[in-house]
Amino acid sequence: MPTPQLQTQPVSASSCSTSVxxxxxxxxxxxxxxxxxxxxxxxxxxxxxxxxxxxSDTNIxxxxxxxxxxxxxLFVHFNASTNNYLYWMLxxxxxxxxxxxxxxxxxxxxxxxxxxxxxxxxWITRASTTTTQSRKERETREKSVHACSS
Length: 150
Description:
two-stranded antiparallel ribbon; alpha+beta; seven-stranded mixed β-sheet; 9 strands
């Protein structure tokens, strides 16, 4: 089995970066993934959302072996033929688990998974999900009031 090749790929983003590109060959196929890292800070602590991203024209059943992955790291796969994202998190049992928006971070139960509009994952606090939801509901109400009064 070939040794993965690491290549540093800096990205110009204030709190996010692409750390490395790793070529792997899981189960006889070739799937390249990139490691991404975004910092976050909240009242309940700070840390990084770390995920590995792969893209192909088909779905995958589960992520490939990612030797550097730790509990709470995410794997994001984008199916280019269907424009569909799949998400997994490395659980405390060291197994990839399918996750979705609102899934709990295993090392801090106050953090839940959020998915940005561009498909990128982010750990956010439960309180911020409530704030965001309330803001969206208020904006929806205000739009409907303005539409009725026009």
